[in-house]
Amino acid sequence: MAIAIRAKQDVTRRYLLVRSASSVALAGLGSLAGPYLSRAADRPRIASGIASGDVSAGSAVVWARADRPARMQVECSTLESFKTILRVASADALPEHDFTSKVLLEGLPPGQDIFYRVRFEDIGGIPGETQVGHFRTAPADKNSISFVWSGDSAGQGWGIDPARGGMRTYKTMLENRPDFFIHSGDHIYADCPIPTELKLPDGRTWRNIVTEDKSTVAHSLTQFRGNYKYNLLDANLRAFNAEVPMFAQWDDHEVTNDWSPIGTADETGYAEDGTSRLVARARRAFFEFMPIRSIPGQEGRVYRKIGYGPLLDVFLIDMRSYRDSTWNKRDDRSDTFILGPMQLAWLKRELAASDATWKVIAADLPIGLVRGCSSSAASISTAGPAP
Amino acid sequence: MTVTLKDVDNRDLWSVEIAPQPDARPGRLLAQHI
């Protein structure tokens, strides 16, 4: 039988109500127990965990999502005890961004473990729960660096099966205690609904947690957001996000399979500037839910460089947003392109200027050699069915 | 630099050592090749 989140939440709520009633009965003093529980329920909650991202030697993004209109308060310290506070920052979490909120912490010391704590205050200033996270700033000298990279979360209907430990890859990555994580895209599979169960080749059954917004192909902003919220139901992912900063890029399934700027639209069509409204909704949800740094004047730009000390520069590229829409859709590829002229010029310029010993170019598509066979080219370009 | 491919159970599947080339100005070379 499938596990449905809404049903589970109802059960949990009933359980709390029963417990609440029992507490009152046992205490015999409803005037004490009742108001306490009521106040706790009224406080803003952290709804989808906390996360950090785009960490450099002196700055980092901290992300969280509330369950109601609230103001996010972030404090950070080099001490796990928070005996001394290094920086504070705050930002609103409002319905227009599904209560997500981000702050940029600046002026941090390099090469340091930074502990941060997040809480939301409601519009009356009443604070809710606090969650504590951690990241390490990039070194100022030539120290060892460890990072992990991966991609493709919850694809082809394989969602969260609690009986199998959920998204165990995040637990494994956390055990390696990396300095940061490059997620090379397909954070979600917006075009792949999560069914209640799947049959395994050996006859066993994979039973997914299911939600309403992850039970259909995403078209609306609510559905795109629901894809990210689905993944954040996983305790392994939330624990990982709290401890390891993410460098996020995107690929095709944040929108739909093998999308290109032109030709990827639903019944809502294109805006006056020629951009797909479907892609715009997908991009908005991506930026709302990722701990990604905003680039002033270039809202929605995914490609960027993150300098991680003298040994390493990371170049995160975007191989979807600026590509020739006919790329991998015709045999003659002599005049086609993927990065687009502006991104390509940026990449060349930044590579040439980089003095880092190691330059890691994080690409959301596999990079390989075309060996003359069109089917090989298709596999490189992920032009076939969703991999 | 050591690059290691691991499975979900943290077992090493494949590993490779890549030596740095500090005198080659690889950034400029890379930019020329792209």
Task: Describe the protein.
The complex is a heterodimer of chains A (387) and B (34). Chain A is an alpha/beta fold. Chain A is 25% helix and 24% strand. Chain A contains eight helices and 17 strands. In chain A, a hairpin with a 6-residue loop joins strand 2 (46-53) and strand 3. The two termini of chain A are 28 Å apart. The relative contact order of chain A is 0.12. Chain B is α+β, with helices and mostly antiparallel strands and 34 residues long. Helices cover 24% and strands 32% of the residues of chain B. Chain B has one helix at residues 26-33, and strands spanning 2-6, 12-17. In chain B, strand 1 (2-6) and strand 2 (12-17) form a beta hairpin. Chain B starts with a strand and ends with a helix. The mean pLDDT of chain B is 82.
What share of the residues of chain B does DSSP label as strand, in percent? 25-35%
Low-confidence stretches of chain A: 1-37, 374-387
Mean pLDDT of chain B: 82
Strand percentage of chain A: 15-25%
Helix-strand sequence of chain B:
EEH
Number of H- or I-type helical stretches of chain B: 1
Shape of chain A: globular
- Give the strand order of the largest sheet of chain B, numbering strands 1, 2, ... along the chain: 1-2
What's the total count of β strands of chain A?
17
Q: Mean pLDDT across all residues of chain A, rounded?
A: 86
Annotation, overall tally of beta strands of chain B: 2
Could you give a short account of the major beta sheet of chain B?
Answer: 2 strands, antiparallel
In short:
The complex is a heterodimer of chains A (387) and B (34). Chain A is an alpha/beta fold and 387 residues long.
Structure keywords:
heterodimer; A: 387 residues; alpha/beta; 4-stranded antiparallel beta sheet; 3-stranded antiparallel beta sheet; 8 helices; 25% helix; globular; disordered N terminus; disordered C terminus; B: 34 residues; alpha+beta; two-stranded antiparallel ribbon; 1 helix; 24% helix; 32% strand; elongated
